[in-house]
Amino acid sequence: MIRRKSPALTRDHHKTAWGGVTLLECIEGVQCIPHVIHLSGTIEHAQLAAIAHNREIIARYRAQAKAPVTYHDSYDAYLESSN
Hints:
By secondary structure, the protein is mainly alpha-helical.
């Protein structure tokens, strides 16, 4: 079976999508500043990138607060098996 990508979702359009997101000023009347942390062709890869990014941010906050790293979430085993 051959899968073909839709022309609207090809890699050529990633810069247009990225630029469109960065131009957002509000969503449903609520002001926001979006930060594009990853652009992927699949939801799974985008989710994994978001999890990794959030872990990095949490680690920075813990380092600033000099808090011990005792928290382990349920995604550890999933992330290790999915790489």
